[in-house]
Amino acid sequence: MSDAAPSPPSAVLGEHGTGGPLRARTAPSSRRPSGGHGRRGGGGRSLAGYGFVAPAVVFFVAFFVLPVLYAIYLSLRGARLTGGGALGIRRETWVGLANYRDALTDPQLLASLGRMLAIGVIAVPVTLGAALLFALLLDVPRVRAVRFSRTAIFLPYAVPGVVASLLWGFLYLPRTSPFGFTGIGFLDEPALFGSVANIAVWSGVGFNMIVLFTALQSVPREVYEAARIDGCGEWQIALRIKIPLVVPALALTGLFSLIGALQIYGEPQTLRPLTSSISSTWVPLMKVYRDAFTTDDIGGAAATSVVLALGSLLLSLLVLKAAQRRTRSSS
Amino acid sequence: MRPRTRRATVAATAALVLGAGFTACGSSGPSADDPVELSYWSWAPNVEQVVETWNAEHPEIQVTVTDAGGNTDTATKLVTQTRAGNAPDMAQVEYPTLPSLVVGEVAADITEHVDDATRDAFTDSTWALTTFNDAVYGIPQDVGPMMMLYRADRFEELGVEVPTTWEEYAAAAAQVRAADPTSYIGTFSVDQTGFFAGMAQQAGAQWWSVDGDAWSVGIDDEASLAVADYWQGLVDEDAVLQAPILTPEWNAQVADGEILTWPSAVWSPGVIEDVAPETAGEWAMAPLPQWTEGDSAVGLQGGSSSIVTTSSDHPEEAAQFLAWLNGSDEGATALLTTVNNYPAATAGQEAATSNEPPALVAGQEDFYDLAAEVAADTIPVTWGPNYNVTNAAFADALGAAVQGGGSYREALEQVQATTVADMEETGYTVTR
């Protein structure tokens, strides 16, 4: 147990917090001291400061801002017919908000959001619950084979998503499964939602468990000692001390899982050839892929992407806000 | 996973940039010292051996083959790379996809580069597959006249007659289920748009037709709806298996002899040989069942042509190579013997009759005679400019119908609506 580097939960946040909203969370505390330095250093110092952030800004603009702007530009364009003859030629042209109108009125997009929600409702709580359970079990004193168990639970995370989906896909099919369950249509609705969520859970538990376990390891041992002296059992320590103390890490893993659920694509796309139940627009990102490549409608794909990105951003901010309020009120 | 995908993209881009560099050189007239370099995308197995023959005979025009994946993958990549201006000089394309590539400015008009000898190497109905408004956009490579592959041994074992009409096929389906509950006569797969379209054509459907500049779309015409009802009846009675084909599950069932027929096209023995090689010799090919006893015309399923792309700097040389590969006696015969294609050129089809049958139907000595007979009477077909949209909509709508218990009829009406809406939004005049 002693090999895990002890670090406060906030450091964990900083380490894994590559997303925008997370940065916003740590920003106020890091800005304040730099303001203090600025007073002493004068103009040269602040120029140096810009120099230090330049690489990050350049990469952010080149690989995030510009592609987003390009996607917004594409979302306002569409392939329309020019030239005569029965076939004619399709050329890209300005179509205004037509792609947004198509995306927002497409019943398939709504249905795919529903399916995504169904998978998320299964996958997110199960992933977090299992990760927390494993982390707490590994944190119990005198537990054996911690390193082995930790690695074993983490290992599925290292399996590429496509491989995991194929592996489970073969297990779901009665002929190719070594267990040969017939009778259960793993790849037919409604079991299909559980089957897809299961792959996400299997792949996701390990990573989340490590985050939570690291947070647990950083809790000072004296706290538990004091609790034991006060007559707490391991159950009570887990429920009343450990869980409240890892709430920030739980919020973080919750956000990751949520974003993971919003981005679900690889699992159903890989399972698609194995079943008639997964349509080409089964989840939102599959629709984006289909529009962009299969049906050659880049504009429509861009519009749907913009809508989805805005939705994801809004949802992430809401969750983060809620989690922050929780954290503040509990501390 | 994401970084890896990005790395692959970078590698692919680098490869393309290099490829474009190669094709750019040698624009000052081809010669053996300064040959024209052409790139060609084809998924046909062993086609590189045929190309080697060409390269040896034509030092001034050197062709490099790349397998960019099957029809859908290749078409997708062609569209994307044409936008970037670096598509290969030539590519293999399935017939239904060709109009969408003409419209997308991927396929170049090669009318002026095709001579009469090449034109005469094909029957009129085959040549019509790559000609639109009198402009030639590709050279036919192989054709897929529809036929029915069946397990001769299992038909005999169960005492079932090989059906010649769809009515007999339905009756035989019930017979098979009664005689052996683990087996099915065949499969209804919702992603087989090409098969369904072919069967609808056989019933008299015309999914697309053009009159002047105006299109008619008939995906939900009476003939097509009848085909939908036919399969819905069989699926509802559990007389055929409702499952996607060519999945590990289906392949295992085929290998175990539990799927007795695969109505598709002349190329089917090669596919089954790949997925269930242990069943070689147990199969035979029969003409596709008919709607009316005594009819003989069938549709085409699959089959491909090769196009010259608009990105090519050497359309003339590219057309010359494709004419040799697909239209010459030498090329067409090589397609038959080396690639195991059923050639589109009549010379190749005639050469086939003296060829040994594919290993899967080893016992059937008259295989290629039968194929030639079927190929001589195929139904002319017009594919629309957005077959890709129809194809995706078909699998989705039929998939939803088999899941939710909705009717196949309504699903087909939905495919029609999606196809027409897409054409109208693009700007076509659609009269129905």
Detailed description of the structure:
In chain A, strands 1-2 form a two-stranded antiparallel ribbon. Chain A has a domain at 106-296: MetI-like (MetI-like fold). In chain A, helix 4 (98-105) packs across helix 14 (298-330) and helix 5 packs across helix 8 (191-217). With 331 residues, chain A is mainly alpha-helical. Chain A is built from 14 helices and two strands. The longest helix of chain B is centred in the first third of the chain and has 23 residues, at 2-24. Chain B has two domains: 2-142 and 302-356, D-Maltodextrin-Binding Protein, domain 2; 145-300 and 380-430, 3-Layer(aba) Sandwich (D-Maltodextrin-Binding Protein, domain 2). In chain B, the strands form four sheets. In chain B, strands 1, 2, 3, 6, 11, 12 and 13 form a seven-stranded mixed β-sheet that branches. Chain B starts with a helix and ends with a strand. In chain B, strand 8 and strand 9 (214-217) form a beta hairpin. By secondary structure, chain B is α/β, with parallel strands linked by helices. Chain B is globular. Chain A binds chain B through residues 78-82, 84-91, 98, 102, 108, 160-162, 170, 173-176, 188-189, 266, 273-281, 290, 293-296, and chain B through 1, 4, 72, 76, 79-80, 99-100, 102-105, 132-133, 189-191, 210, 212-213, 215, 242-244, 247-249, 252-253, 385-386, 388-389, 391-392, 395-396, 398-400, 402-403, 422, 425-428. Chain A: This is Sugar ABC transporter permease. Chain A: The chain crosses the membrane at residues 47-73, 116-140, 152-171, 191-216, 245-265, 298-320.
